[in-house]
Design a protein that fits this description.
Chain lengths: ~775, ~290, ~160
């Protein structure tokens, strides 16, 4: 290892699955029994006595001045308790950022909780109705009269910027990431390829819409937000600031969450409103978003234009990538600031060793639904761009697509690989580990690349348009800095593990239980995992950017090891054996290698003996309970390759994905079954973005996909056979378990691989310049 | 997305249903059959009927039977009734079974009705295309009487029909098909189960090795489904095969006046018309 | 607000007497008036299938029916699948095959698959795919759902013999 790791804590290569008891195994999920029995508790399933239902009145205009809001008729509807406009909550600031460098200059673009004199997208909340019944609330919302004066709209991020407000441009920021001498790279280049690429607007669209319940516990003076997700602790910090409450007076509770994908669980105007209303109206407030609202108001993403070029020497070694990005942020800057544009910029060079790079992003506001992170934010986009460039370059140079990639991959010997950007304050990337070429070889073999090439050629000769494609990508996961966990064993031997993580359906409880069970030596099914409750643990990282497994997993591992040490310390005293001779098996402290019936002590019995006041304690803390932390300064970088085979119907323009392979190095898998689930699920989402899903807008800014008839989520019949090859060739040295995240590896390269395969099918490199590749666009391309 | 309020009526007899409809129709009262199109429209509040006359409990409307040379389909016969081809319905049964699997999805087909689809008259409705291609007859009833409307006079544009507000589409009568009639259906949509962007239904007989009595219907391409005489002319008297089928497709594309939307230009649907017609013909021949 | 109508819904063999406005959807009634929140609402326009229940033996979207239309009829929801602590084969198959992640669409898929397999135990795979493509899932990519349903089909056939 080079000195790139200097100062960072690194860990030895962890054991493999075969050497483990439960960690790394295909264990069935702890989450499942209630979920298959109708005993889940999603936001919509939560009710409080005397609750009111909130319904939003939303702008039907993409950009306009609000002249008046007349609520008189609406207030007459029996069952309506209150109707608020911005005037009623004017002391509330806009919804704040969670964190982002450079976000300061974006502050004027934040979204007010209710529109302040102006609405900027169709769906912008203008008023809120509170009523006894959701049907009545909707009746009343229909009667609220909003008079607006239309203003010119900005629809395309690459169009001349307009005015966000007098004196403020719709270009919120100009971002730059670069290294090396880009001008020189292009000057000395043997071959240059230029492309103008578009990634379409799509989003996570979880099956559960958003939901929020505000409840005020007057006895304790605690305001509670239920229905939270993803980042409960972070959201609590923001809410505490926005509402001016003491932290102890505001808690956030996560229940079951019907899918997150980056967009659910961010703080939205409605979350703030239910809290304010719960206090002010003195009754619990329930808000359940409907699907139409979801498709015009929840965070969207991905919409970018890239004017990009790539330079290579005569051997096909890439000398530089130069990219000018137009990033469509939508109408406001939401909780992530400029994060997505920045992730696009910083991950552009991917797994290739490229000496010069310049990325410039015009971060622009438009009159469309605001955007933020959606699964693999910035990476789905940048992989599409980079891999398009590689395909086009290979074609222009007459080189095989695979060979070109092979010549440019970062080698194992170069690991850890440091990417430093010239710009002040831009975070460096330190690829922690990887053997990219090994994965390429394994992937090509598993996909039967050579054979498929021949099969496709044969089919093409018979008139079919069929082809294969590839996209290589690097992911990032487990960003720090730190997460903690608490763990205790009760007198029954049941284990409670309290984390600050969040569960969005990804199997968080099971993976944490597996890590804890392995470290402690108990049955994972004996472990109850608590997450997303700000009143149970003071800090928590939540579940975003594939952090949960790495960071919270690290904390859980530390905590379980600490608990094990405590159990063994007392166990040694009670069994009168040295600690080194003891082991914990299935929740019982035993003598290593001793036959059954030897000296033993169950953890439950030990917990009884550690009650407060017990003599055994001898000044030490009671209970079989500990708390521990895991800190890391570095992100880990899993990597993968997507291989796709597609068939294009030249007559209708329809593209069908016939086969897909995800090759992915995860370092160490906590539960391969769940990793595969994450990868396959992500892949079908990616396929949605590549072929089906698009939030289209009319020229006047009217959203055209506000139903499930227009926003095309793939169904079972659109999902191809997806094979997964998980490798563990490059465990991360940055955490003791060697694990890397799985959440985003299924989606990252789909757009790139599908585009690559379509080009091959059509025999036209660089043909695909826009996602999604709809039949209509395909026909235009073929014309 | 909660429907606006309405008054609900659940008559048990056809007479009661028609009397109610006569009363409430002037106040935007509507028939509720399968509800698979009306209820979503109500959820979006695009439809706000003040009264719903639920005919699901009306005795006799679920009749599905052969009357002489036609198949009579009552107003509450569900799509799913056609899932398995009933041998008693002959070639028509097989044709309906072929078409029905393209209508939305399984649980929609357990509720939705053929007559409901015909009354709703979505340009992309498979049953509307079927009715026009086969030359069905609609039986419209009011409290005062009944009339029969030939399919050719029935469709009047996007979601518009010859039905009066107080008329109940009580029955559709589909002519049975002669033994040996070839039939083929082809639908193109982005996802299986979606509304068709374009589709075609064809039938023909083969006499002395030549195509006779060709019916070529297209749906989803124009505001209403219709037959394409030019395509039929291109087929009749020709040997069934690629040449004739492609000629029929071309003839169709040459005469259609396609609908347009933001994502689909007219030229796309025009091309598609040729494709769906020739593919439906290929399926018929297969 | 219009006058309410008194109706009786028989859910999983148990009568629920409730009073509802005619416009109240069956899905809302099952959940909020009868307390069976296992039936989920994902789109309210009949596309996603999360609210699928079994009505007199047929799978239906409960968001596309009004509760008044189900008066006196027999409904089955996800809560009625297990017999006590004994999971139904379809439930066990979803667990065994990792056929769910967030679990939101799961009750809809379970009810859809159950009714299809009960009606047609020997259903052809293409028809099974046709039926299951009725419902949307955003987490799994469907691969494990179809696996789970195939496993359940085998077990249900075995149990029926």
């Amino acid at each position: 290892m080079t000195d790139h790791f200097a100062g960072a804590k690194t860990y030895p290569v962890p054991p493999t699955t075969e050497q483990r008891t439960i960690l790394g195994k295909r264990a069935t999920r702890l989450e499942d029994p209630p979920l298959v029995s109708g005993r889940g508790r999603y936001a919509g399933d939560i009710n409080f006595p005397r609750q009111l239902h909130m319904r939003m009145v939303r702008s039907s205009m993409a950009n306009g001045t609000i002249k008046s809001v007349n609520v008189a008729e609406a207030l007459k509807v029996p069952g309506v308790v209150a109707i608020w406009t911005h005037e009623d909550i004017k002391e509330l600031g806009p919804v704040d950022f969670r964190a982002d460098r450079g976000a300061e200059i974006l502050k004027p673009y934040r979204q007010p909780v209710l529109a302040k004199g102006r609405a900027r997208y169709v769906g912008d909340p203008i008023a809120a109705v509170f009523a006894e019944d959701p049907y009545v609330a909707e009746d009343a919302a229909d009667l609220v009269e909003v008079e607006m004066e239309e203003l010119p709209v900005v629809i395309d991020s690459w169009a001349t910027p307009g005015e966000f407000e007098p004196g403020r441009s719709t270009e919120g920021a100009l971002l730059k990431h670069s290294f090396g001498d880009i001008e020189a790279a292009f000057k000395k280049a043997h071959t240059i390829v230029e492309l103008d690429l578009f990634t379409g607007r799509h989003s996570g669209v979880p099956m559960e819409t958003r939901g929020a319940l505000g409840y005020y516990d007057a006895t304790k003076d605690i305001l509670e937000l239920h229905g939270a997700a993803k980042v409960p602790h972070r959201n609590r910090e923001t809410l505490v600031k926005m509402l001016g409450r003491a932290p102890k007076g505001l808690h956030v509770h996560e229940s079951h969450v019907g899918g997150g994908f980056g967009i659910r669980g961010e703080l939205y105007p409605e979350d703030v409103l239910v809290l304010v209303a719960a206090m002010r109206l003195g009754r619990p407030i329930k808000w359940i978003e409907d699907r139409r609202e979801h498709l015009m108001c929840a965070n969207q993403g991905r919409e970018q234009r890239h004017k990009c070029r790539i330079a290579a020497d005569e051997n096909g070694r890439v000398l530089g990538i130069d990219d000018e990005i137009f990033h469509d942020q939508g109408a406001y800057v939401r909780t992530h600031g400029a994060n997505v544009a920045n992730r696009t910029l910083c991950m552009m060079t991917g797994g290739y060793d490229i000496p010069a790079y310049r990325g410039i992003a015009h971060y622009r506001l438009t009159n469309k639904t605001p955007c933020a992170t959606y699964r693999a934010p910035g990476r789905y986009e940048s992989t599409f761009v980079r891999e398009r460039l590689m395909d086009a370059l290979a074609d222009k140079m007459g080189l095989d697509r695979i060979e070109l990639r092979r010549r440019n991959l970062i080698t194992k010997a170069q690991m850890p690989y440091l990417i430093e950007f010239e710009e002040q304050g831009v975070e460096e990337l330190l690829y922690d580990s990887g053997d990219y070429e090994l994965l390429l070889d394994k992937g090509l073999k598993a996909f039967r690349w050579k054979e498929r090439e021949a099969e496709c050629a044969a089919r093409r000769a018979k008139g079919e348009a069929v082809g294969i494609g590839i996209a290589f990508f690097v992911e990032e996961s487990g960003r720090g800095p730190s997460d903690g966990a608490k763990m205790s064993v009760d007198v029954n031997g049941d284990v409670e593990l309290i984390t600050g993580g969040a569960s969005l359906g990804q199997g968080f409880e099971t993976s944490m239980a597996q890590i804890a069970a392995e470290a402690l030596g108990v049955d994972y099914q004996k472990i109850t995992v608590v997450h997303g409750q700000t009143d149970r643990i003071a800090q928590g990282i939540g579940a975003h950017a594939a952090r949960a497994t790495v960071l919270t997993g690290g904390a859980v591992n530390e905590t379980a090891l600490k608990l094990r040490a405590k159990a063994l310390e007392f166990g040694a005293e009670l069994l009168q054996l040295p600690v080194g001779d003891l082991d914990i098996v299935d929740g019982v402290i035993v003598k290593k290698g001793a036959p059954p019936g030897g000296p033993s002590l169950s953890l439950g019995d030990l917990a009884k003996k550690l009650a407060p006041g017990a003599k055994l304690l001898n000044g030490r803390d009671p209970h079989l309970a500990v708390e521990a932390w895991f800190n890391t300064d570095h992100t880990v970088f899993p990597y993968g390759i997507h291989f796709a085979q597609v068939r294009v119907d030249r007559q209708t323009g329809q593209t069908v994905c016939e086969n897909f392979l995800i090759a992915y190095d995860i370092g160490r898998a906590v539960n391969p079954m769940m990793v595969e689930g994450q990868l396959v699920g992500g892949c079908v989402q990616g396929l949605g973005g590549a072929l089906y899903e698009e939030f289209a807008y009319s020229e006047s800014g009217e959203p055209l996909a506000v139903t499930f008839v227009d926003y095309l989520l793939p169904t079972m019949r659109e999902a191809p056979q997806i094979d997964v090859m998980i490798t563990e060739d490059a465990p991360s040295p940055m955490n003791p378990l060697g694990i890397k995240g799985a959440g985003e590896g299924g989606i990252n390269g789909v757009g790139g691989a599908i585009a690559s395969a379509i080009d091959d099918a059509l025999g036209k490199a660089g043909a695909v310049v826009q996602l999604p590749v709809t039949p209509q666009r395909m026909k235009a391309m073929l014309a | 997305m909660k429907p606006a309020a309405f008054l609900y009526h659940a008559p048990r007899t056809l007479e009661a249903a028609l009397t109610l409809l006569a009363e409430v129709a002037p106040q935007d009262g509507r028939i509720l059959a399968g509800g698979q199109s009306l209820v979503p429209a109500m959820a979006f509040r695009l439809a706000r009927p003040t009264h719903l006359v639920d005919i699901n409990g009306v005795a006799g409307l679920d009749r599905l039977a052969i009357d002489g040379n036609v198949l009579s389909v009552g107003a509450t016969v569900r799509h799913a009734a056609f899932h398995k081809a009933d041998p008693a319905f002959g070639v028509l049964g097989a044709l309906l079974a072929d078409v029905v699997h393209n209508i939305a999805h399984y649980p929609i087909r357990t509720r939705g009705t053929m007559c409901g689809s015909l009354a709703h008259a979505d340009p992309a409705s498979e049953w509307c295309l079927t009715a026009i291609t086969l030359g069905a007859e609609m039986v419209a009833k009011t409290a005062k009487g009944a009339r029969r409307i030939p399919a050719a006079d029935y469709f009047q544009g996007i979601m518009s029909t010859a039905l009066e507000p107080d008329e109940l589409l009580a029955e559709v009568r589909l002519p049975l098909l002669a033994n040996g009639t070839k039939h083929g259906f082809y639908e193109f949509n982005r996802r299986a189960g979606d509304f068709a962007i374009g589709m075609a239904l064809v039938t023909y007989r083969v006499e002395n090795g030549k195509i006779a009595d060709a019916h070529v219907g297209i749906g989803g391409i124009e505001g209403s489904p219709r037959r394409v005489p030019e395509a039929e002319a291109a087929l009749n008297g020709q040997a069934p095969g690629k040449v004739a089928f492609e000629a029929a497709g071309k003839a169709t594309a040459a005469v259609v006046d396609p609908i347009e939307d933001t994502q689909t230009p007219a030229s796309y649907r025009r091309d598609l018309a040729a494709t769906v017609v020739s593919r439906a013909l290929e399926r018929a021949a297969a | 607000m219009t006058d309410t109508v008194a109706i009786t819904l028989n859910i999983n063999g148990e009568d629920h007497r409730v009073s509802v406005e005619p416009r109240r959807t069956l899905a809302d009634t099952i959940r909020d008036d009868c307390g069976k929140t296992g039936t989920h609402i994902g789109c309210e326009h009949g596309v996603c299938g999360s609210c699928t229940i079994i009505l007199d033996g047929e799978p239906v979207r409960s968001c596309l029916m009004f509760a008044v239309q189900a008066d006196g009829r027999k409904l089955r929801t996800v809560e009625g699948l297990a017999k006590g602590n004994q999971l139904h084969p379809i439930q066990q198959a979803f667990i065994d095959n990792h056929g769910l992640q967030c679990g939101f669409c799961t009750p809809g898929f379970l009810m859809l698959a159950t009714s299809v397999l009960e009606k047609e135990p020997d259903i052809a795979d293409a028809d099974l795919l046709d039926a299951l493509s009725s419902n949307l899932c955003r987490c799994t990519g469907y691969q494990n759902i179809i696996k789970a349903v195939r496993q359940a089909a085998i077990e249900m056939r075995g149990a029926g013999k």
